[in-house]
Write a structure and sequence with these properties.
With 206 residues, this protein is mainly α. It is built from ten helices and no strands. The protein has a domain of 126 residues. The termini are far apart.
Length: 206
Amino acid sequence: MPTARDALLDAAHAALTVRPWPAVRMVDVAAAAGVSRQTLYNEFGSKDGLARALARRAADLYLAGVERALGSAGGTGDRLAATAAWTVRAVRASALVRGLLTGCWGERLPRPVPSLRRPASVVPAQRRADAGLPTPAELLGQVRDRAVAALEEGRPPHDPAALAVTCELALRLALSYALVPPPPGAAEDGMPLVRDVVEWAQGAVT
């Protein structure tokens, strides 16, 4: 059963799909979640706090999908291609993930602003959200580092730097597919191109 916090985040996300963030009212979010407005403020502190929590959840869900993709079957090329495909799907499906990975928020989105509140929230999940979000470069770096950790097993000990470059190339290719539609007939998620790049990169360092 979802918690009040989950219900509020779901309600805020649903509201964001039909109206811009400035037009989303806290009282409406609380009503849609079936809780009091006071409960909403107890959880998030403010509308900015709710925005930070929405973005934090989007980042966590994206990274969880990355972990699943990296744990899929196949070799380095297959698993990086699966990660690229997930990134393309996530950016296209979620404007919040798109903002997190590109820094392009726009007027409709709840661009998270740093928390200036002191003392920190008594809600642990909100303290984490208020602590700040990674920049696009930092988030990409987190994904790259997860990929290196998942894929380096069994590789020569001199290879981690080359593997990190290969992982970052795959991720940047994924973002290009997510932001710029491919030509008709081309793969929608960039998986074949990512595999080609991985094979090329592996050949270049052997």
